[in-house]
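Interim report, section 4.2 (structural modelling).
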Amino acid sequence: MEHFIALVTKPDNVPIVAILFLIPYFMWLSYRQARQTDKTGVPSDAHLNDKVYVWPYLCRNEFVCAIIVMLVLGVWSIMIDAPLEEPSDPTKTPNPSKAPWYFLALQEMLVYFDPWIAGVVLPGLIIAGLIAIPYIDTNPKGKGYYTIKERPFALAVFSFGFIVLWIVLMIVGTFLRGPGWNFFAPWEYWDPHLVVPLTNVNLSYLFGIRSETTANFFGFVVVAGYFALGPIVYLWKHKTSDFLQELGLVRYIVVSFLFLTMLALPIKMILRIFFNVKYIWVSPWFNI
Amino acid sequence: MNEERKGLKEKITNSDIWRSIFRHGYENTGRRYTLQILQNVWLHLHPPRISRHALNFRFTWCMGGITFLMFLVTAVTGVLLMFYYRPTAEYAFADVQYLEFDIPFGMLLRNMHRWAAHGMVISVMLHMFRVFLTGSYKKPREFNWAVGVILLLVTFFLSFTGYLLPWDQLAFWAVTVGTNMARATPVLGHEGPFAPTEITQSNDVRFALLAGTIVGPSTLLRFYILHCVAVPLLASALMALHFWRVRKDGGISGPL
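Predicted structure of the assembly:
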């Protein structure tokens, strides 16, 4: 436990501790306003046309905000020194070796996917997906105010991605991953000699498939079948669902692909943690 | 009493001494407030008037402004730090030590730079969260959201390139771990799937980033130039575009 306290109070981990408080606070703040809007209705145009002069009203706010932030930063800088470890030595690898804290969600993904997916493809898709958001979200409601009722799907997907798959994984990577990138509970000692038996097997093995060629084909069918869920839902629902009609085919393909890719991470995590699944698809060229 | 005070005030403000110092009074008029914004080079990016709800902290969280403030702090402290730092493997670590122990307020300077950088990463993520929750990326602000996503990446990259510069174990291994993933880039990384045999560890995408096969002196110089010149310039240009589009797209979003 002492060692966990030392970890939490490490100077470079101050931002993570701040995030532990800031994220719940802002979630609560936005949730309260969203509930208010959902109960009393969207504020009217009259509210928006209520204009004030930027000088002095906005400039005063900016000025006060800047002073408060500079005070916090000043106190932070006086109280806590930036870390400086021993000089760099390429022959002395620390265990665990960690990326900067804001990349630890990506490093955490490396547990579940090979580097080419976790380190290259998924980050690329996160960026592409974020940029695509305004172009695939056709819901005109909920612009410029907090609401839950008017856009539950968009909020659920984004909050899950941001809070669970980015922030929580970052915190796990910082505080709960020790030597060998093994998982340690806060009260556990970070034992560098801990031996964790690797009992993971491929999904095809669990299904009793032993031949490599069959396993390759099996993996292809599973992955292709998973991504085929998108088109299947479309063919099944597009005549009756207003949502799909409005979205259109191209947007739907993008949305379903990004959505299924995002869900693939928690699915792989569950398969790994509870069923010891190593790979879903093993092929001669890549493994997924 | 009030009359008396008014008379006294007029007497003072009408005196020759007062009028030699202050050329004219400050009128409390809308025209005056508007000119205050329009005629000031630092404030002219603001519109003269905004809707009242844009003043509300609970709505805006101030996070975009805080991100910009953190950028300014890192720029100012960064320039000062550059006076004491040489980006070579021989001197980098020693210069940071010298800065910490011998330069007056050197430690404070370094702390402010590092914590402002961390603060900027936090505030930019929260800014994105707020913009999403209020649906502010919706028409007509789609493109500005895209610019914002690029700025988020630029912020990460600024922080990441700066992480190497102290040249200690923390820096060296964080950057080693962070850039190792580039090995596995499909086609362009020597350990990635579908990499042709011509792609080796001395000509793949990771080599381009590190200027070597491991993090070394050339990496330090490369990251230094990216951190101090190239990426801040890119960030400034994109920020100018971002702020300009905020105004052109109708100011801060609101219920319409």
